[in-house]
Amino acid sequence: MADAAFLALSVITIGSAIAALELRSLVYGSIALMGTLGGIAGFFILLDSPFVAMFQLAVYVGSIAVLILFTVMLVKRELIFKKVEDKRRKFVGIALMLVFMVALGAVILDSGIKQITTDEPAVDFREIGDDFLTYYWPALILMGLILSGAVTGALVLARRVDEENGQRVN
Amino acid sequence: MLEITSTPLVIIAILGVAGVILPVINVIRKEKGSNSFYAVIAFAALIISIGYVGYQFLTDNVLPSALFSEDVIVDDAFGGFFAIAMLIVAIFTTVGSFNYMRKHNYPAIYYSLILLSTIGMVLVAYSTDLIMLFVAWELMSIPTYALVGFIKRNPQSNEAALKYFLFGALSSAIIVYGISLTYGITGSTNIGEIIQGYSNLDPGLLPLALLSVGMFVAGFGFKMGLVPFHQWLPDTYEGSPPTITTLLAAGTKKAGFAATIRIVVLGMVVLNLDWTLALGILAIMTMTIGNVAAIMQKNLSRMLAYSSIAHAGYILIGLAVSPYSSLGLQGSLFQILNHAVMKGMAFIAVAGIVTTLAVTNLDKLKGLGRKMPITSLGLVISLLALAGVPPLAGFWSKLMLFGGALDAGGALWWAPWLAIAGVLNSALSLAYYGWIMRRMYFEGETEKRVSEPKSVIAVVVFSIIFLVGFGVYPDPIIKFVEYATPIVSLGLMP
Amino acid sequence: MANELTEFVLVSVALLGIGIYGLSVKRNAIRMLFAIEIVINAANLNMVAFGRFLPHSGGQTLALFSIAIAAAEVAVGLSLIIVAYRMYHNIDIADFRSLKG
């Protein structure tokens, strides 16, 4: 049976995920998103994966969520609260979500994964490091290329047009 | 073990170094305006890579299409085939951008992102591990998000990029979810071990396996532009810079097919589901909706975008009949290579028209045949080849695809219908291609010839030689395709 | 382990559902980005949970890759959103109408 920590974490995670999408203000929405991401980090600790949990906190909560928060704060105040929504579309969306969750949940409860339990100790995080440097090493190189591409691409896009023109005059 | 000289690793090294060093050179040089220097570096890197792939084939260092390996990548003929197709597309894009980029800022970053995206496309085809495939998939996608929105002052480019980004990010999120389920069911991320895990699956886990395969189809289907997932595609192809549309239509879309053949087809064969019918229905829907919508378009890039949706449908025919007819899958591979050249040339020709005349509206293309004779000739040849008119290479690939569908008719009662639908759709597409040709050659007043961009002419001439040459004498390429096609059947186990 | 695998997977399915709801209903670019992040996190939770119960190190490796890639993706996406905001002074993609078929 689920213990108290698990229940609390699921309430926090799912609740703040809904809040992130439904709160009127985008600022509070992004703070709620931090709650979801932090909750997932909590689940990682429950799953004996402290390394991934730390990574999640550092990268997701520490940089992605903060980046989103800053972008939101750059946006005009009216837009933060603006909410154009089609009522019919919303009901269809909720119906779709419920059908999806119930169907998928039924499949999972029905399937064989219920019996899977383990008493074995968790994977040592040194094994992850081994994996990275032996089996997955080409993927690690590609990861570096992704980051360099993303950084140069984002820098070029985010640069102001008037600044570029000014430089060209000089 | 992975040899350090194996093709994928060498391609990563060459293109990766060139891609990372271009922005650095840009910072050091500080001068603006000349893009030829960066274009030459990018071009040289791509030519060296394609040369290396060819060398590996000629010296027999390539494994026959293995599909499985103990490592994350495998240097096999299937990957090599796709590597050649993708590198041709990247060369087209680089050469074709030569004139286009004169008017825009940051040529170094532009070419560097093209190179990085090319590595991703090539490596998707070489991957034999889901994590590797996902990382390569993202390396392919993330630079293209930036490239589509590269023309910052153009609202269309930005809107196209935003739509492309949101759908692309959604598709990769779905793919990750599919990977997570597959991993949970089989306990591994290596495709060979996954297939093994699927083949002795606990029956209770079958619905989950089905769901994960469905998620792969949806996730890859977004990039391939299969019909329920195609809404972003016309907008993105129309709004993005036409040179980048080449990369999307001819490159990333084909990488989606490579990934589908690697995972979905094999996974489904082993799961032994009645999946061929589902893919067949998707194929017919994609062909028909793409062609019908293309008739109504008034913009050349948008029309070509719908036509490329339709072509995803033709390629899917071969995948749908693959367990019963190897001819179908060979036709798919041949069509993938042809489509890369045909659509690549068509969009580069559009880029040439945009650079010189700044129009893409079909009404304004009257008399183009006299204004830009070589570009128009290229466009006509590529449209005829897309429709599958006999002496061109497009004819043979369609023949193989439809032949494969008829071939599978013994085992699948509905397979001949795929061929019939394909033929009808080709006839339909010939109608609207013919309409464009009439516009270009028989309407409008006699107008003066304008000078055409030399880079576009280079691409057009190469493609015409390719399409006509292999149309008249297709034997070598059919042999190559036969060699590169993996054998997909129920007897295949790692 | 005090908790069962099914429970973690069910939480992940709930998050997936919420993410799909957000993507199909919301038209604000930043909200759609939230929804995508929620789906990716659901997948990560799945992977680590499966990895713990197998037990196998692949799940955690996959989650680490997925987190790092999400960071790169978000950086490019946010810069596109900023460019759009500068041009339209708006971030609702339903209001972007320069492309029509």
Features:
heterotrimer, B: 494 residues, 19 helices, globular, C: 101 residues, mainly alpha, 0% strand, NADH-quinone oxidoreductase subunit J (chain A)
User: Any idea what the radius of gyration of chain C is?
Assistant: 17 Å
Query: Based on the structure given, which CATH architecture of chain C is correct?
Result: Orthogonal Bundle
- Count of folded domains of chain C: 1
**DSSP helical segment count of chain B:** 19
Beta-strand percent range of chain B:
under 5%
**Helix and strand run of chain C:** HHH
Helical content class of chain C: over 70%
Name the chain pair whose interface involves the most residues. Answer: A-C, 88 and 75 residues
At the first level of CATH, what is the class of chain C?
Answer: Mainly Alpha
SS content category of chain C: mainly alpha
Please state the structural category of chain B.
mainly alpha
- What is the 3D form of chain B? globular
**What's the main sheet of chain C like?**
none
Q: How far apart are the termini of chain B?
A: 17 Å
Please give the alpha-carbon distance between the first and last residues of chain C. 56 Å
**What is the makeup of the main sheet of chain B?**
none
Structure description:
In chain A, 79% of the residues lie in helices and 0% in strands. Chain A is mainly α. Chain A has one domain: NADH-ubiquinone/plastoquinone oxidoreductase chain 6, subunit NuoJ (Four Helix Bundle (Hemerythrin (Met), subunit A), Up-down Bundle), CATH 1.20.120.1200. In chain A, helix 1 runs antiparallel to helix 2 (26-46) and helix 2 (26-46) runs antiparallel to helix 3. Chain A is globular. The termini of chain A are far apart. Mean pLDDT of chain A is 84; it is low at 166-170. Chain B has 19 helices and no strands. In chain B, helix 12 (300-320) runs antiparallel to helix 17 (415-442). The longest helix of chain B has 32 residues, at 155-186. Chain B is globular, with a radius of gyration of 21 Å. Chain B starts with 6 loop residues before the first helix and ends in a 10-residue tail after the last helix. Chain C is mainly alpha-helical. Chain C has one domain: Helix Hairpins (Orthogonal Bundle). Helix content of chain C is 76%, strand content 0%. Chain C has helices spanning 5-25, 29-53, 58-88. The interface between A and C is large, with 88 and 75 residues. Chain A: This is NADH-quinone oxidoreductase subunit J.
